[in-house]
Amino acid sequence: MTGQNIVEFDGVGLRYGQGAEVLRDIAFALPEGSFHFLTGESGAGKTSLLSLLYLARPQTRGQIRLFGYNVAALPRDRLPEIRRSIGVVFQDFRLLDHLSATDNVALPLRVAGYPESEIAKRVNELLIWVGLGNHLNATPPTLSGGQKQSVAIARAVINRPRLLVADEPTGNMDDKSAARLMRLFVELNRRGTTVIIATHNEGLIRSFPFPRLHLTNGRLGVYPAGAVIREAFRV
Questions:
Q1: For residues 28 and 186, what is the distance between their CA atoms, to the nearest angstrom?
Q2: In sequence order, what E strands does 67-161 have?
Q3: Does residue 228 lie in a domain region?
């Protein structure tokens, strides 16, 4: 870790429309090169918090700083640059079924204007690394759930993001597949990517001792690796 914070939330709140806040007074920091789990019961606000991290929506109040920038103060034309530094793995994969695994993973590089020769080299190497070397031309409908998730992870990291955000990436996998994917995340983290993973899987959390952000009723507690979680916030 460098010690520099890559993410900083200060007094952040989020509400949808005129409803009550779903996130309240969120304050935490992620040092560059760190790895954190994000936990909490269904409805606690995990997906909402992740959506703020990858700039899918603005906060209602408070300040969010990513890579040293106050994102609310940035001109709109700067936001794509920030987003390119963030890889996102969605729970439902969001792959394009008519494209091959290779073309799904290549999309971010093509959008960014990389030459096809470099795209082919980087995509092939990465798909081999995630265990899909024999499925380069397979389309998502022909792949298993674990293989689809591997494609989604490869697509999320092909741009070598500084921050990787994953929403329940192992939710539909057996324990063996989940552990394998976690080892991929750990290796990415070892190479310098800051990682935050939302999960309900307590077995994974015990097997991979990283600090934990825990949401209860829209409020956040920050815990060291191995800490016993007590539901501190009630309404």
A1: 21
A2: 69-70, 86-89
A3: no
- Give the residue from 154, 119, 129, 126 showing the smallest Cα distance to 140: 154
Task: Show the tokens assigned to 54.
Answer: 């990858």
Residue pLDDT, tens place only, 123-140: 999 999 888 999 999 999
Total domains in the chain come to 1
Instruction: Assess whether pLDDT exceeds 50 at residue 235.
Output: no
Range of the domain at 189: 5-85+161-223
> pLDDT above 70 covers what percent of the chain?
96
Q: How large is the angle between the packed helices 175-190 and 145-157, nearest 10 degrees?
A: 10
* 3-class secondary-structure state, position 11: strand
224 exposed, middle or buried (CB, 10 Å; 0-12, 13-18, 19+)?
exposed
Task: Indicate the residue type of 70.
Answer: N
- Which parts of 125-208 are beta strand (E)? 163-167, 194-198
Q: What is the mean pLDDT of residues 3-22?
A: 94
Q: Which residues contact 164 (CB under 8 A, 6 or more apart)?
A: 86, 87, 88, 89, 156, 157, 185, 188, 193, 194, 195, 196
Instruction: Give the whole-angstrom CA distance, residue 125 versus residue 75.
Output: 36
In the block, residue with structure tokens 């597949």: 177
**Residue 21 falls within a domain, yes or no?**
yes
Average pLDDT over residues 55-65: 96
